[in-house]
Request: fold
Amino acid sequence: MWKKFLLFLQDLENTPQSLLSYGGAFLSIIILRLTIEASLGHFSQKSFRFIFFEFTHTFLFFLFALLLFSFLFRFLTKESLLRVSNILLFGFLIILLPPIIDTWIFRGQDFWSFYEFDGLQGLFWRYLTLFGDSPRIGITYGVRLEVVLMTLGSTFYTFYKTRSKKLAFLAFWLTYSLFFILGTFPSWLTLVLKTTSIGILAISDLHVASLFLTPETILNSAMTDVRSVLNIKMSLFYAFFSGFTLSFLLRREQPRASAALFKHARFPQIFHHGGLLLLGSLLAWHFEQAPLPFSLFSILTYGLLIFSVVLAWLTSVVINDIYDTSIDALTNLDRPLIKKNIPHQTFLAYGIFFFFFSLLFAGIVSPTALFLIFLYQVFAYVYSAPPLRLKRLPLLATLLAAFANILIFALGYITLSQEKSLTTLPTSILLYLLLALTIGLCLKDFKDIAGDAKDHVFTLPVLFGETRAKYILASLIFCIFALSPIIFNQSTLFPLSFIVASLAFYIIQKGTSHRKSLFSYHRFSFLFFLLLFCYGTLLALFFLFKH
Reply:
């Protein structure tokens, strides 16, 4: 029997796993856990939004725990990340037990499994007594049994792999300590955030409850349900902590893949998307006099929104690179798939993860953010992927890309708007942005002329030739900048707009295929959007001081 169990562990360690199958298995465990809770009546008569926040909190909590314990087991046993992750994934099946056990123990009595709140001295006592008292509210009997079993399991596995009693004891202590910290996490966060203002010894469970259970307005959206408030606030922390931990593990365990992803993230476009989001928010503040989100959780939520936008952009990058391999093989030889830095299936898995987390994080911010990010992803897909592959059609392709960019701008505006709509935004600004982006995005096509022609992607440079297309786009962009005072009905802006327009015309006319040149086609988009950003900043300052 014992030998069969050891053989089972070995088979489990050596089970081949793709990134996608592993993520799917983990997600399935979380969904199964929530399904059990729902079937036991824990979510009866609850709204879909409540259940969504319950899912995000549960998923991100256990994801963060999985990443932490993966790193811990990797450190203790010196085994590969894949082998210890397989063991952990199987061990995480134990999270299905607590709701069943607690429902059986309490037999219809009310209980709430979440966290233990306490001050520093109380936390020390709870650490020594397996979370202390109050098992009906906080760390329930089922959760405590889960902690005990996982701690014993980690101890056994470490001893089995190392044959070291010292390392086994270290595994026992570290596992229990990590579980304790996770089970009391709001208390530790409160100690960090409130120590300077209250004093570390003065912080009590009431201060923790005040910080994490009190309903408040986050980004001009009122949150009233106590449990949802806790779920949202903790999800914010787990999202960032999980992101940093995952990035660290990826960089450590797959340096080649992580370096390739980092190098080809298209940082100018990332800053462009961030700039659109910020511009939208600033205009909402300007036109509606909306209060700026200076509270801790509003700042974290806005940061999560930026994170979601970045992940949405990275998803579009993956889609584009997968379906543009024939073009990139001629004009973008340093792309990850062309250089074979990342296997195709792994690259696709990254894209799916980027897509999933972009929607997950957007959903935490608001239903509107979720819808706009999803719509952005739809635009990105029909732009690059067959059968439509709309990037093959001149102007229509850039118009679609411009609409996708406008969605990010609208997201920034609506997030800070008190009306939660674009109704207070002057139509002229929206039309000007749409026009500028539609024309300006054509500049990116110059670097792919040879590949686009071969792949029957009919961009303006392919249709009209390099020289003529430069003249056409330079003239159109000149008009966009030069005529902007008419659109904004501000004649005093003519000198500034003419200078910017002339500079844009000069840059485009100097464009060259030589990659080392300042005016290389590979820098076209960056130079244009930098110019547009600077001009937009000057316009924003102009309207601000005029107002």
Remarks:
- The first strand starts at residue 112 and ends at 113.
- The chain has a mean pLDDT of 88.
